[in-house]
Input
Amino acid sequence: MASLKMPQLLIDTDVFCKLTVCGLLSDAIGLLNAGISDCARLPALQHMLRKGKLRKLYGDQAADSMIPVAEQIANIPAPNTAWLNKLVQIQAIDPGEAQLFASAAESGLLVLTGDKRSLQALKSVADFPAALTGRIVVFEAILLALCDQLGPEVVRAKIQPLVTAENMVKSCFSAGNNDPQDCLLSYYRSLVAELAPLVLWNPRPGANP
Output
């Protein structure tokens, strides 16, 4: 049963699925000093894996394999309306992402997300850049950190389920690219510039991203 304790890492649905289907979820959250019991996710995740769009996207077998993992993770804590109300009228931020960002801002939590559209909108919302400084973990950053820890070839082998559907993954981990880390770093640096004044989590602490 999922823990009721306050989590330290919130995971959006998209990144949860990408990391889980590639067998990289435990390694990824470990890089953020978290275990499964330290994480939280959106309540709709299991339904989407059973009957929703995620089942159609990943297929029955992959969706079924992800459900037990999702069941080990708690629902995100309900955010204070003061934070949530700043986001609910912003079209580019869907209700699920709004809950993640508001909860993270209120409680000082990390957010693992791949939703660039919502981050572009979030950077202009009062108080959120300051509250989430260094707490937004983008997919490119966690892949770069995984390459640094596990080695690029290990990550390349595991990430294959995403190569055909994910342009960034295809670019960085294609057979012709011998340096996925350099490619990921380029993507990450672009996001650092594009999303300022949001300050993203740095996959290489102590180094200039």
Observations:
- DSSP finds 13 helices and five strands in the chain.
- The beta strands are 9-11, 39-41, 74-75, 110-113, 136-138.
- The longest helix spans residues 180-195.
